[in-house]
Amino acid sequence: MPQHVQGVIAPGRNEPVRVETIVIPDPGPGEAVVRIQACGVCHTDLHYKQGGINDDFPFLLGHEAAGTVESVGEGVTDVAPGDYVILNWRAVCGQCRACRRGRPWYCFDTHNAKQRMTLLDGTELSPALGIGAFAEKTLVAAGQCTKVDPAVAPEIAGLLGCGVMAGIGAAINTGNVSRGDTVAVIGCGGVGDAAIVGARLAGAAKIIAVDIDERKLAKAKEMGATDTVDSRAGDPVEAIRALTGGFGADVVIEAVGRPETYRQAFYARDLAGTVVLVGVPTPEMKLELPLLDVFGRGGALKSSWYGDCLPSRDFPMLIDLHRQGRIDLGAFVTETIALDEIEKAFARMHEGDVLRSVVVL
Ligand code: APR
Ligand code: ZN
Ligand code: ZN
User: Fold this and answer.
1) 138 three-state secondary structure
2) Which residue among 73, 214, 259, 276 is buried most deeply as judged by most CB within 10 Å?
């Protein structure tokens, strides 16, 4: 029997989000219905609302979530009712050219539930990133559920489903930060701070946090930055070089997603160093660099998609490290809110004093 639950939809471009009754079908083959316990508010949810992702309104927002599997469809063997899971937007297919070459963290053919959730009048909803978790329950592909230790509270665990994983993965997966490396992180929001946590976990000797907001720099220090640079106070490239013996950092992680910060990252790294772009640019942005510098400085210019994570490998591992006290994922939760407070959370994003607002259901 299809179920009726409360969920938050974005009805149209820039229209305020609202709580609506959502119809959840029974899970079909390969699908699962998950009872959501917590879901973080991410910039991507705001971009959906603004029409910045695509025009497939109405959206069922929310995608950084943890909850409990309620029911599964035919053929589902990896998860069972009662399992505590983090939802992911990289359900690997096992068949595409990336998967076949043993690189499933790049999977080019990830999948979502085949059936659609709807409004009461039958209008089909587009779930954000194929998840749609600002709702009491949601329908996903079973491969989007990653089982983890239930000892970690859902408002903390769920954050691994998007931004925190993207940042940690940018450092440990994409950037391959290793013991003794010098690392600079440009932009210290939730993603940049997670990159700092990842760099610290990997044994970086120096972690330089760069931002334009001193509150963000203070928080970055709490998260493990060894040095901070306020890029309003002077050239951040010079400052990073000065902190690294005049050479630049081994790995620079760009967590803003703008041409000017990318250029800073490019020049703030040592010869043969690595730039990791994890901030997401917008379509009109252009980058111009002397090609000779691209050649002459060597190294690697990489992008990090979702922290190049493999959820089945990385989520349980990071949950265990959190339980052991080796990383503190709880530090990312600024506030917990109710389902009808998401507009307020969007407004607070711009004030700069929130890493994550998390809806608790
Ligand atoms: N130089 C340095 N820091 C900057 C600059 C700049 N020119 N411009 C903005 N910042 C800082 C902001 O002060 C803020 O601390 O970058 C940080 C961005 O953080 P958030 O807005 O909280 O964004 P976050 O969730 O961390 O995501 C960062 O990754 O997923 C993408 O779309 C997301 O592109 C965004 C990026
Ligand atoms: Zn694949
Ligand atoms: Zn997100």
Assistant:
1) strand
2) 276
